[in-house]
Amino acid sequence: MLKSEWERSLRECPQNPEHHGEGDVWTHTCMVVEALRGDPEFQALSASDREVLEAAAWLHDVAKPLCLQPDLSCPGHARKGSQMARQLLYERGYDSRLREMVCQLVRYHMVPYRLVDAPDWERQILQMGLSCRPELLTLLARADARGRICQDQQHLLDQISLFAELARENPPAFADDHSRVTYFRRGGDPHRVVHHQPRCRVTVMSGLPAAGKDHWIARHGGGLPVVSLDGLRDELEVSPSGDQGEVIQEARERARGHLRAGRDFIWNATNLSGQLRQRTLDLCFDYEADVRLVYVEAPLSEIERRNQARSRPVPAGVVERMMRRWEPPELWEGHELIQSL
Fold this sequence. Notes:
Hypothetical protein af1432, five-stranded parallel beta sheet, 18 helices
């Protein structure tokens, strides 16, 4: 999306006048950036933190036009916005570490308003704390509240202050990796020690096609058996753009064989969205496995070059659809997270 297209889509997106008397999303976005720049706490940050926060301010509502409903609500715009921001910044070669900081701020930018009254506030704040820095999220939310015309602005600012206090009082500290995994899967007391004797360890790969997953496995896989979706597509003669049902079914059956035997193995697939990963992780956890998530990334130009050099390139349209729902794995999903960027 070009800047002109992005700006036009936000200008043409109306908002509920009760919460946004200033009008369209673009007007609100500009007011948020202005409010952020005028915040003394923002001005005192490092240059890189200011860069991240300002990018998040420009992009925090980027998905509202896609999520707009007849009643002018935009459900899901924060999560969708983080995916759009990731694609926009990746395509422009933005630093991957800073990009993910921006995307997580966009993803969680609504949390400070709603957290205090949420029944699962503890889980939300612990998950958020593993993904982004609460002090930066507080500044973004405060600018978001100030950058609008509404009757409940002070209430929003009060909620944000309570969020900041809760975040300081509840850092994401767990007894060990398995206790963390158990909490996010089953709930309960986040400070509880959960004893665990894993039957095996599964390495779950994640990354865009041609990002370098096979290369990572060759260097670090230790000769473990690999359940590879690309390999199964070749074996079953299924196109990357075709129906993947048979490929997934066969992959899961082979994975179950390793899991039943208590054998370490590697699951090699793109696993780009949280929803897709969850199915694989559920299978592994059902067999009491430890899960190591490995996320691999390469510049877009390199991915395109490698993909075209393949004997069976992944169609550009398929890669584009994957990027639209792209969510790198996070620490709360498994026992270990390795990032190869």
